[in-house]
Write a structure and sequence with these properties.
Blueprint: H1 6-10, E1 14-17, E2 28-32, H2 33-40, E3 49-53, E4 57-66, E5 79-80, H3 83-86, E6 88-90, E7 93-94
Length: about 110
């Protein structure tokens, strides 16, 4: 999960798509080259639909593909969805992002 500005701020090298639009809206998703090749067999997948299970299975449209990060990177990421998509209970309804994530051990997010 990431803020809509994540790709612009981190400057992950994009293979296709634009950082400004990649995480715009609840139906957008960005994939690493590794994931694009794993699920589609190629890296030119902007505009393709992929189903991802967050709280429930949902369809997303690939808006960007970024270079797979090296194993030595401090970030370990292959799939990025916007915060709004994660907290959506349905395609047309958004729940508020929590102000406090609470204790990670007792948080419902830790299960």
């Amino acid at each position: 999960m990431a803020d809509a500005n994540f790709l612009s701020l981190t400057r992950l090298p994009l293979v296709s798509g634009t950082a400004a639009d990649a995480l715009d809206g609840t139906g957008s998703i960005a994939l690493s080259v590794r994931m694009a090749e794993k699920y589609f067999g190629r890296r030119d997948v902007v505009g393709q639909r992929i189903t991802v299970r967050l709280q429930e299975a949902r369809d997303f449209i690939v808006q960007a593909v970024f270079e797979t990060l090296p194993e030595t990177s401090h970030m370990d990421v292959d799939v990025i969805v916007p915060f709004d998509a994660y907290f959506a209970s349905g395609p047309d309804e958004i729940r508020a992002i929590p102000d406090d994530w609470g204790d990670p051990i007792s948080s419902p997010m830790s299960a």
